[in-house]
Design goal:
Length: about 375
């Protein structure tokens, strides 16, 4: 058969995955940056100057780079949670709700003086965040797996419930609420429950590195474990997965709950490492940005690392670009949207091209058989 005779695929773990699966993502980003540059030029600003200011704002010094990492922290954790669902054919869009529930869980013990050493107190906060978020995620997980309820609808609805539940808790629940505050918020976390600052004079905490480690861990889980095989097979062909003996309903529920737990970790990291309190809208829109991060990464856990850092760099450098060049502050969001559109567009074109190649391959094989001498055709 002549199909893909000249194709060469790198088999090196992680490196091969990046080179093979991320090519169209990088192409889409490049096209998105070009299109955004045209828009910037239309406003009367030199796009090269604007992009230089953006890069300076994101990577100009150690403080700027630490800011990028801090901004990437919730996107890394949220992105990996969504990407696991994508691999299983499930759209887990409830990251924002999981973050709020995880923050509430962490606050339940984070504001209490339990006399624990910092390591134990921090671990206890993470455990409570995982429990609260996991229970919250079990609701759409059960509805999707056993009742056939669309997970996008249920998780988005639960996101709003989680946001207003958080507002109620920090306003009326005496254990957490700061009663004399001008704005509904929880009491401040005790020092023993806060994540350490890794670079003096900055807000850099261990959160982004926790996210990167989890991305690497789940890359190997998806590619080298039976659980990962079942997950990817479920996403690729649910009928084949069921035929092979995979309990599809159970697998779907587990995937959604795991995503919820990771989302809860993301919320806990934000309040323990950056906010030091829980309040309404403390992560507005971050959960939905996590979905965009996972889509830009093509559902690849390793791709999530680069996608989250890209989003964070645009957000961190966008302010500098706006100040130095006069470009609208919303331009960073426009750049993200343009890159997303082109990545999706390149993916659609690539899938159509691949389908055409596969459909024509059978004719190549038939031609080879017809051209072979009698008695020489392999059966």
């Amino acid at each position: 058969m002549k199909l893909l005779k000249n194709a060469k695929i790198l088999d090196v773990p992680i490196i091969g995955d990046i080179v093979v699966s991320a090519g169209r993502t990088f192409l889409g980003i490049a096209l998105g940056l070009i299109a955004s540059g045209i828009l910037i030029a239309i406003t009367g600003v030199n796009p090269f100057v604007a992009y230089a200011a953006l890069i300076k704002g994101a990577f100009g010094n150690a403080q700027a780079m630490s800011n990028v990492l801090v901004r990437a922290s919730p996107l890394l954790l949220g992105g990996i949670a969504v990407s696991l669902g994508i691999k299983a054919g499930v759209w887990n869009t409830g990251i924002e709700g999981y973050m709020y529930l995880g923050a509430i869980g962490a606050a339940m013990v984070g504001v209490l003086d339990l006399g624990l050493p910092p390591v134990v107190h921090i671990l206890l906060c993470f455990v409570c965040a995982a429990v609260f978020a996991g229970i919250w995620g079990a609701i759409p997980g059960y509805l999707r797996a056993y009742k056939g309820v669309n997970e996008v609808t249920s998780t988005i609805m639960l996101n709003y419930i989680a946001i207003y539940l958080t507002s109620w808790v920090v306003s009326n629940f005496s254990l957490l609420a700061q009663t004399d505050a001008f704005y509904p918020m929880s009491k401040q976390f005790l020092p023993s429950a806060l994540l350490p600052i890794l670079m003096p004079g900055s807000s850099l905490h261990p959160g982004p590195f926790i996210g990167i480690i989890l991305c690497i861990v789940f890359y190997f889980v998806l590619n080298y474990t039976p659980f990962g095989f079942r997950t990817k097979m479920l996403g690729a062909n649910p009928f084949a997965a069921r035929y092979s003996g995979t309990n599809s309903n159970k697998q779907i529920m587990i995937i959604i709950i795991i995503g919820a737990v990771i989302g809860g970790f993301s919320g806990a990291v934000e309040v323990m490492g950056l906010k030091h309190r829980v309040f309404m809208d403390f992560v507005t829109g971050v959960g939905y940005e996590s979905v965009a991060v996972a889509l830009l990464a093509g559902g690849s856990p390793i791709g999530v690392v680069f996608s989250a850092l890209f989003f964070a760099a645009l957000k961190a450098g966008g302010a500098t670009m706006s100040i130095e060049t006069g470009v609208a502050s919303s331009m960073s969001s426009i750049i993200i949207a343009m890159c997303m559109l082109f990545v999706i567009g390149v993916g659609v074109v690539d899938s159509h091209r691949l389908k055409k190649v596969v459909d024509t391959s059978k004719y190549d094989e038939a031609d080879e058989i017809a051209e072979a001498p009698k008695g020489k055709v392999e059966k």
